[in-house]
Amino acid sequence: MMDVEHRLLSAYSAPQGAEAAHGAGAGKYVDFLWRTDLLADAVMQEFSGMPEGEWRALLELALVKGIESVPSAPDALRVLFQQLEQVPFWVDRERCNLGGATFLRCRLGFAVLAMLSLPLIYSWPAGNKALALSGQLMHRASQRLKDTTRYVFSVCQPDGLSRFSEGFAMTVRVRLIHAQVRRLLLQSGQWRDDAWGAPINQCHMAGTNLMFSVGVLDGLSRLGYRFDKVEREALVHLWRYAGYLLGVESELLIADEFEGNRLLDLMFAFEPAPDDDSRALVDALMQTSFDYVRGFKAGRCCSVNLCYGMSQALIGDEHAKALGYPKTRWRWLVPAVRPATWMVETARIYSSRVQELARVAGPKAFRHLLSDRGLKGRAGDFAIPRKLAVRSDAPQPNSTTDSAQDAIREVSK
Asked: Exposure pattern of 9-30 as b/e (b: 16+ CB <10 Å)?
């Protein structure tokens, strides 16, 4: 294992002064690039030695009825569910529900997911390699965007992360999908841990989680939405718990918006500039987003530059330039929309009737996105993949296996 100084030089060339600006957090952050989710990794390692039909049935039974109803569950699966079912003392269900309701009342919430959160996630060169090498996102962008929307919609439902909810089950499946993709990428022989860290590592899992809370709040505010302090904290709280269920380590589970912005600043200080994979993934995202917009009469007189322009206004000129966005006047659409949104939001604050309309209209817009008339493609079932698009001549040993087994023994004590 390389020391921190060598990692900084070989993998993440931080700008001069970044370490001084972020103090001890800089070295700790880089260390998280080589850390994964050992409990989930151990489950998929154990599943790999079982018949597929058997382990899928065990997982489904554990999700639907609880791990105690699966007497033949492997030790790794049992330990994972012990962690999943142990609700941290800081979780407040009412705050989670308020956070979900806060996001769902925003009819333009999807625009922020597609035009801000996902493009910035794709801009991380090491973070996007799991997607780029698997070939899944560029060739199935429509389904992936619809799946992301469905997942966020489920998590934001009332009690969306309660034990037997759809959002909880989706979260567990996403966590195990990450573990399986890690295992398959390491076997493929195409993963460069010296340059990219571990596949789907703790830093990028935490960063993705932040883009659904702190990032979303920033984007919606740019569109003119208004949130009080309690609402902002509630949305962060909801995704903090989602991050816990997804396997993000406690040190990276931010407690408030200030901590979230500080961690994002640290991420962007150390992330290399977007690469060709970043630009290809974003282009596929913009194309599939425009396919949805084109279904409306207003969308028939414009081009995909509409999506690029909105995205540029949300992520900022610097990020847009690095991602190769075309120059377009559509970037002025967001500033043009902001005053109207702000006026509607002001009316909502003072009118109970407008508040009720927002509570109905927002979720209705998301349900339309997930219907056959909305985003193209069918919503997937979040199935754990058998293989990836990458080809491997010979499997390579999974470097996380021994550590994963150590984690099981430690948690079992």
From this structure: eebbebeeebbeebeeebeebb
C-alpha 292/C-alpha 299 separation (Å) is: 9
Closest by Cα among 370, 315, 311 to 151: 370
Question: What φ, ψ does residue 213 adopt, rounded to 5°?
Answer: -125, -75
Give the N- to C-terminal CA distance of the chain in Å, as an integer.
27
- How far apart are the C-alpha atoms of 211 and 114, rounded to whole Å? 11
What does the DSSP assignment read for 196-262?
A: H-STT-HHHHHHHHHHTTHHHHHHHHHTT----HHHHHHHHHHHHHHHHHHT--GGGS-SSHHHHHH
Alpha-carbon span 331 to 324, nearest angstrom: 14
Q: How far apart are CA 314 and CA 316, in angstroms?
A: 6
Place of tokens 């989930």: 40
Q: Cα separation of 202 and 361, whole Å?
A: 36
Of residues 157 and 21, more confidently modeled = 157
Rounded distance between C-alpha atoms, residue 411 and residue 399, angstroms: 20
CA distances to 112, 217, 219, 380 from 118, rounded to whole Å, are 9, 14, 12, 18
**pLDDT 10s digits, 30-79:** 889 999 999 999 999 999 999 999 999 999 999 999 999 999 999 999 99
pLDDT at 401 over 90: no
In this structure, the number of other CB atoms found within 10 A of the CB of residue 406 comes to 12
CA separation for the pair 330, 306 (Å, rounded): 5
**What's the pTM value of the predicted model, to 2 decimals?**
0.89
Closest CA to 365 of 168, 107, 193: 107
Residues 325, 283: contact at Cβ < 8 Å?
no
Closest CA to 408 of 109, 10, 46: 46
Dihedral (Cα; 3, 6, 8, 12), 10-degree rounding = -110
In this structure, are residues 176 and 59 in contact, taking their beta carbons and an 8 Å threshold?
Answer: yes
Asked if residue 115 lies in contact with residue 290, where contact means CB atoms within 8 angstroms, the answer is: no
Going from N- to C-terminal start, the domains of the chain cover 38-370
